[in-house]
Prior knowledge:
Number of strands: 2
CATH topology: Arc Repressor Mutant, subunit A
Shape: globular
Strand order of the largest sheet: 1-2
Structural class: mainly alpha
Largest sheet: 2 strands, antiparallel
CATH architecture: Orthogonal Bundle
Low-confidence stretches: none
Number of domains: 1
Helix content: 40-55%
Mean pLDDT: 86
Amino acid sequence: MRLTKRGEYALRTLIRLGIAERQKEGVISVSSLAEQEHLPFKFLEAILFELRTAGYVESTRGKYGGTRLAKPMKSIKMGEIVRLIDGKLAPIGCASETEYEKCSCPDETHCGLRMLMIDVRNAIANILDRYTLENVVEVTLRKQEQCAAAPKKTARKKAGGPRHADPSDGFLAVLLDSVK
Length: 180
């Protein structure tokens, strides 16, 4: 599975709308959302149209109009959104439950690659379907608070160099850290 830009932008937008709801900001204009999340305005409009059509967001017109969540955050599973925007979660078609495609393998039933990719799909689905937008917003806000309170870690990030994904920056690491 590879999350497309459309899927990434949809998830980032929903998370931003969830944060706005949690912080009692009310509706957010599309231009403000695009600016805050560094997203192309027209692309964001198309994504919001799809999310609105599916019932995840609602819009208000007018000078003080904007967008907000249409459902409670606890009822929005992250896997639903990924499937809505990007389709299948499986890395290859023959491992998909929702968009199965016959593969070119001579013995699909006993194919080791297919079995491995079914496990990959299951792992992805288990994580995305376990967590709601409410969980992600909670962890996002918690991480922002931790970063604001902690001294800056300059050694981790070289000036101008790439920053590798540190496992301690992951969603589950932050979520589990709060349990300790």
